[in-house]
Structure formats: structure tokens, C-alpha cells
Design goal:
This protein has 21 helices and 23 strands. By secondary structure, it is α+β, with helices and mostly antiparallel strands.
Length: 640
Amino acid sequence: MENNNEHYDASDIQVLEGLEAVRKRPGMYIGTTDVKGLHHLVWEIVDNAIDESLAGYCKNIEVIINKDNSITVKDDGRGIPTAVHPKTGLSTVETVYTVLHAGGKFGGGGYKVSGGLHGVGASVVNALSKWVEVKVYKNGEVNFIRFENGGHTVEPLHVIDKCDEKRTGTVVTFKPDPEIFDTDVYDYNTLMVRIRELAFLNKGLSITIRDDRDEEDTTGETFLYEGGISEYVKFINQEKTPIHEDIIHLEGEEDGVQFEVAMQYNTSYNENIYSFVNNINTHDGGTHEEGVRRALTRVINSYARKTGMLKEKDESLTGDDVKEGLTMIISCKHPNPQFEGQTKGRLGNSEVRKLADSVFSQGFERFLMENPEDAKLIVNKAMLACRARNAARKAREITRKSEMATTNFFGKLSDCKSKDPKVSEIFIVEGDSAGGSAKKGRDSMTQAILPLRGKILNVEKARLDRALSNEEIRTIITAFGTGIGEEFDLSKLRYDKIIIMTDADVDGSHIRVLLLTLFYRFFKPIVEAGHVYAAQPPLFCIKHGKTIKYVLNEEERDKYLATLNPNTKVDIARMKGLGEMDAEELNETTMDINKRVLRKITVDDCVAADAIFEKLMGDEVEPRRKFIEENAVYVQNLDV
């Protein structure tokens, strides 16, 4: 065999010094260089200010989006130490901003509890910025330092002014490097939502956000919640109808671990349980959430048995039964949290499970004993959920047997030939007419068509057992292959893309919202995994000479027309509904994977999404009427 070993010795081993490593592999430190990574830089600096608050020193934080899309974060904490650091020989401020893993979060008494655990926040922001300026207010002096081009010190720390002896704190301004990020434009709403959440999670801390790009908004928004996570529950439930007035707030501490829960039941059939550790959303749960869920089920069953609401022959209530209609925030502040997975999505500390169980069960038992009327409402809701769950199980069995045993289902679904979910997609279309064109215009190897006959049930107002009695919903469940409820399994999804294809009119929009409500409530993992899309049929067809151009909206139409010679004979036609298009037209505009436009449906902000579905699709008429009145002014091209 010929030896093809290439030259390989010590000179081939690259050593990246300091912040070079961050610029070379930014994804390792901030996850991504897209818009999410851009916003992550803000949280690295804000986390440092929050840590000062957790330590008891910071009361006010201000975040400003400057006109040039740089960010300023101000706090009134103790201010970064300014003395020369004994190990680096540099000022401590310069050390924090230029040395990875330098910070007050590795012991030494700087912080007992911290959100940013890696200690790389400030230095990573510096590495990925065009420039950074830091001002430290301390000991009656204003200290200043400036870095440029990925963390190089261009102005070492020096005193630039005097200040009131009592004034302390840090002001950081940074401009993300456009060579690193896909975009350097900040989204106000993305920042505002997280800042509001941080204010809920840190009671008594005032956080202000201001957008100086908006000349009309000179004051910004300030979030301050003295009630902490109880006010968070109230905020989530604002469009819902609570079944008991008081929000239950329980807290305790053991071995430096602080733990609190706020909860309230409402008349809906959905749970909203969010858990946090040191302000980080543990979206995959963990030991703090497990302890609470376990105690919740045990305490309600115990109370129901003691009071005779559950008889000896009755089956016990399950975790699913007792969390129906429950809004709950779980917050744990831990000096040494162990997170599982790169994304810090799950708490692993085993001792927290026992603490969570103990604090919650003692407090919740006391609440039930002291509030018998509220307790009765809570137990009754769980017992109704239990009966509905059993009815749903029977309905599922009937659905599975009847649908798969007959050819009726396969008469509705025109399935694709491929059995590989990675390349398969399903179009859910309104009506048989659009379904007929779609069947003829599809690529039958990879594209399945499911026509809906009529509008599906609004599941915002229905439990699973009632939803399963709806023929259209049963058809969708069978087509997806994942099952529903307790037996839901995302790995069994038969299609990579689920594409809602409805007309761009009032009826089409209504059907789309009904489908999205169904997916969000009963198939949420499908939405979260990015499998749901909305087709974007064009609004106009522009013809000139032998050229045919389809455009999505008026803006695209006007842009395209501006590129044409003013003397061209242009024919502009508003497109017909999907059902009126022939197969070739439908394929050309909406289905051909090389030409179509799809909009991915995401759930970036679950709390906001939940509130919108509740407002637009729930039982309460007044919030829906108010929404229509406030937004009617924005309606264009109304199809009456």
C-alpha cells in the first residue's frame, strides 16, 4: 500500500491566544451568529448587572438601543473593581473584558448566585464587537476603558471625571461586529419580552428599555414587579378566567438554595408551566420541576381522599389531570446549579427535587386546608379532567380501529409514494376544489394532499375527548401518525413539512387560525420542532411580452414594476383563489419546491402565543372585541 501520510508535525497545531478563539468559533460561546446570537450579547452584559442585583447591590438597570444599533447597559451595582489584578498585572476591568473565564463567579465570595456561570460573558461580548466602551463609577471617580476590533485595548483604564461619592455602577456600550453576525440590527420586541421576564423573576428590580432609533419614544418602558413571579402568573392569566381569586405563592430556602412557586388555576384546558434556575428558562424541566409536579399530584389526591371527594373505588388523579388549566412559575436560585446539555435546558441537581417537593407540599397542603371552597374547585376541575381523559382514551381506540380498518380515510388523503419522512410533505387544503387541483399539480413522489371538508372544531374551547369526535381532526391525527395526548410520539411523524394551504381571504384565514390552534394545543412539539408552514400563494400575476412574474403582495409588485422600462405594456392580474387555479398554475405558484415561498410557523414566545390564542379563540368575548376594535384600522383588502 502506498503511504499517503501528509506532512504533520508540531507546526500544524494551531494555538489561538485569548479572544482569537472566540472570533474563530463564535458558535461555541454564543450558540449562533444569526439574530439570536446577536441578542445573546445583550444578555451576557445584562446578566452581569442582574448578578449584582442577586447579591443585593443593584436596584436599577437600563438597556438602550442606540441610533447606530450599538447597545448601552447601565446598572447601579458596586461597579467592576478597578485595582490592578494580582495575576494579570492589568486593571481588573481590563482583565474581565480580555481574559476568558475571568470573573467573580468561580468562588472567592464575589457572587453566591449567578445566572452567567461561564464567566466568559464580558470577554466574549468584547471579542465579537467592533468596539466596546466601559465606564465604572466608584470611589467618587469615573473610570473609562475602550476596546476595538475584537477586544484589543486602545485606551487602558484611566480616570476621566469625578462623580458623587455615593454613586456606583457600570455603564457598558458595545457595537457588534458586522463581520461576525448575519445582521447587526436589534429587534426591540425581542429585547423587551426578555427584560419583562427578568423583572418578573427578580422582584423589586427596576429594568428600563429604551429605543433611541425611535424619535417618538423618548422614555421607553420600565418594568418593576414588587410581587415577583405572582405578578408573572397574573400577567399570563390576564386573558383567562381564574377559578380561584388568590394566586398561591410558596417559598423556602435550604443550604443557600432559594426556591419559590406561584400558581393559579383557570377555566382553560391547557397548562402553562414555566421553570427557571437563576433566571435561565429550563425549558426541558429538571429536578426542581419534577419535585413540584410530584408533590402537586400527591397533595391533591391526598386532599380529595381525605374529604371524600374521591371515593375508595375511584382511580387516583394523574399528573395530567391535576395540571389542566394550571398556570405556574417555578423559580430556583442555586449557588452551584448543574445543568444538563449544552443549552442549560434541564436542571440536574438531585438535592433540589427534595427541597422543591418539601416547600411545595407543605405550603400547598396549608392553602387547601385554609381555603376549602377554592380547594373544592381545584379538585373538581382535576376530576373532570380525569373523566375527559378516560373518554379520550376510548375515543382514541375507536378512532384508531375505525380509521385504519376502513378505506374511507385513504379516500380523503392522497398520500405520497415516498415513505421517507425526511423528504415527504403534506398540504392541508380547504375544500375539494382546491384539493383536486393540488392532487393534479403535486409531485406525487413526495407531496401528499389532505383536503378539509368544512371548518375544524375550535379546540381552544374543547377538551381532547370532544376534539376526537370531530371527523376532520381524526383525519389529521391519522395522517400525521404521531398519535395524540398521552401516546403522542414526535418520532412517528410521517412528514417533514406540514403545509397549510388556504385562500388569502377571511374564510382561509379563519381555517388557518383553527388549524394553528389545533397544532399549538395538541401537537405543540411539531410546531416547536419547525415542521409547520403556511403556503404563500402570490397575490398578483404580472405579464409583459413572454415573461410571467408572480409576486406575493403590493410591495413586491411595485418593486418589480420599478425595474421595468416605463414603455413596457404590462398586464397585472389579481390572482384567483386556490380552488379556482388550475393544476399547472397551482404548481407554478405555490407547490413547486424550486419556486414557492413558505412561511415557517414558530413559537418564539410561548407566553405571547398562548395569550393570543386565548384572546382570539377562547370563551371570553370582550378581549376579542377589544382586539378587533384596536386593530381594525390596519385592515387592507377586506373581503366582505
